[in-house]
């Protein structure tokens, strides 16, 4: 297996959601607001199994037969108080990531921009035994602690500094196309408040009705005469779908966006003016009914269609493409299908067929199936039962052709030469991408799916 990891020295494309925050909260049926047909209309959930195409939908919906439980990181802070001129928050890893990160880039487009990544991990071992795996290193002082600055092969353009502010946590700052002096200066100006663990699900408590949320959204957007569609979800689900569609910049530019607890239930309301075509997304705090964020939007954003409306989940009706009830903050199968439909493992699909299989699992189970996926748990604890979606991709070349065994988007060693194969496999979890150029290990295929699809496939 070849591994690219956003936790170590080799960065695997931008992830989706934050890690310094948590998942959680199953709203009890008694707390769910009723449906208001005069105000809203459901788009329907997207397909539970993705083959790289968006827009198909699950046909049948049946009652939930199980409630998924786990743990995740609670609220915490990993914030830079100094950044190079022009750098701003860009994207963060998926909720449920075993090593949370924050990414900062200068304005512009394209995956090859300079970037600074902040991350932390559970690392109870002695710092003297730690190595990020780079060819060159030297020691520097970081906030009164010994820091290890690493550079060189296998990724010459990455410079990382690691240090332990306490007995349990390992912090890191990694710069891409950034000087070592800037990386060290960022590290010396980090504010870190470690998170605790939160058991899932957490009772979300009562929420305001759909009609109240819509009224508040229309007032906040100044589109009171338009149409409104409201869905009950959570911060992490909304944010991750936005990032998957590269539509999160508008919300990230709004003060207060994505700064609250990620498991917090929110009403996401799409308001549009039929006459002018203007549209906006308003995120409403589901517990208070107060608008949190308002941002412009297209009239029919695909990410909103993929968002699961959890207010429709009842004893006889299970939403999200599975018969398992998932905690707020954990993506449903339909939502993860939308995220996974972005190609990760095939650079040229014109002569290859790609199929995707999803499994909801936990970090310990994935690590037991193949310890290489989490790099041997060198920079994290693999005993924490975080819920993670495992995306298993099969890339099969057309008859008479071959494909390069490497992922769609990553920074990898300059001397890496991908092999040409007829078929290969990719396994992605938050923060890591593994490539198998021969066969997929049986324990990966045999992982128990905690949220199996409705059709049982």
Structure characterization notes:
The protein is an alpha+beta fold and 457 residues long. It has three domains: 2-16 and 326-445, no CATH class; 32-46 and 201-320, no CATH class; 76-198, 2-Layer Sandwich (Phosphorylase Kinase, domain 1), CATH 3.30.200.100. Helices cover 13% and strands 30% of the residues. The protein is built from eight helices and 24 strands. It has helices at 180-188, 210-221, 235-244, 249-252, 302-306, 333-340, 363-369, 442-445, and strands spanning 2-5, 66-67, 70-73, 77-80, 88-92, 101-105, 115-122, 136-142, 145-151, 158-163, 169-176, 190-193, 197-200, 227-234, 265-272, 279-285, 291-296, 324-325, 352-362, 387-397, 403-404, 420-421, 423-429, 432-436. The strands form seven sheets. The protein has a seven-stranded antiparallel beta sheet, with helices on one face. The chain is globular and about 60 Å long. It starts with a strand and ends in a 12-residue tail after the last helix. Mean pLDDT is 77; it is low at 2-61 and 92-99.
């Amino acid at each position: 297996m070849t591994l690219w990891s956003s936790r170590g020295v080799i960065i695997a494309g931008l992830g989706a959601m934050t890690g310094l925050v948590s998942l959680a909260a199953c709203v009890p049926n008694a707390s769910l607001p009723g449906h208001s047909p005069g105000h809203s209309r459901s788009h329907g959930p997207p397909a539970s199994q993705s083959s790289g195409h968006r827009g198909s939908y699950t046909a049948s919906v049946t009652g939930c037969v199980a409630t998924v439980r786990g743990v995740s990181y609670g609220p915490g802070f990993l914030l830079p108080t100094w950044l190079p001129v022009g750098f701003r928050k860009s994207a963060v890893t998926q909720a449920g990531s075993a090593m949370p990160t924050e990414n900062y880039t200068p304005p512009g487009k394209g995956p090859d921009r300079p970037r600074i990544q902040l991350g932390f991990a559970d690392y109870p071992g002695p710092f003297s035994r730690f190595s990020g795996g780079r060819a060159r290193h030297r020691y520097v002082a970081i906030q009164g602690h010994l820091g290890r600055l690493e550079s060189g092969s296998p990724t010459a353009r990455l410079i990382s500094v690691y240090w332990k502010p306490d007995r349990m946590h390992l912090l890191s700052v990694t710069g891409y196309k950034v000087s070592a002096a800037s990386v060290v200066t960022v590290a010396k100006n980090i504010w870190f408040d470690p998170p605790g663990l939160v058991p899932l699900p957490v009772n979300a408590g009562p929420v305001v009705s759909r009609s109240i949320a819509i009224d508040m959204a229309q007032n906040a957007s100044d589109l009171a005469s338009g149409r409104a569609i409201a869905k009950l979800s959570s911060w992490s689900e909304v944010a991750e779908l936005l990032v998957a569609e590269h539509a999160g910049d508008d919300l990230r530019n709004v003060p207060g966006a994505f700064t609250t607890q990620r498991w917090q239930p929110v009403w996401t309301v799409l308001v549009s003016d039929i006459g002018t075509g203007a549209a906006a997304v308003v995120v409403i705090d589901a517990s208070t009914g107060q608008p949190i964020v308002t941002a412009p939007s297209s009239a029919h954003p695909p990410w909103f269609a993929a968002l699961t409306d959890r207010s429709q989940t009842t004893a006889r009706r299970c939403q999200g493409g599975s018969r398992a009830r998932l905690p707020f903050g954990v993506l449903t199968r339909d939502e993860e299908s939308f995220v996974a439909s972005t190609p990760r493992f095939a650079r040229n699909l014109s002569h290859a067929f790609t199929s995707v299989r999803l499994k909801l699992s936990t970090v310990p189970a994935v690590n037991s199936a193949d310890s290489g996926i989490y790099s041997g748990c060198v920079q994290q604890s693999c005993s924490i039962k975080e819920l993670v979606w495992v995306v298993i991709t099969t890339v099969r070349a057309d008859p008479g052709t071959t494909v390069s065994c490497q992922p769609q988007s990553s920074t990898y060693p300059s001397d890496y030469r991908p092999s040409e194969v007829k078929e290969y496999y990719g396994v992605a979890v938050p923060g890591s991408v593994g490539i198998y150029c021969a066969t997929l290990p049986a324990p990966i295929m045999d992982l128990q799916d905690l949220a199996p699809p409705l059709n049982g496939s």
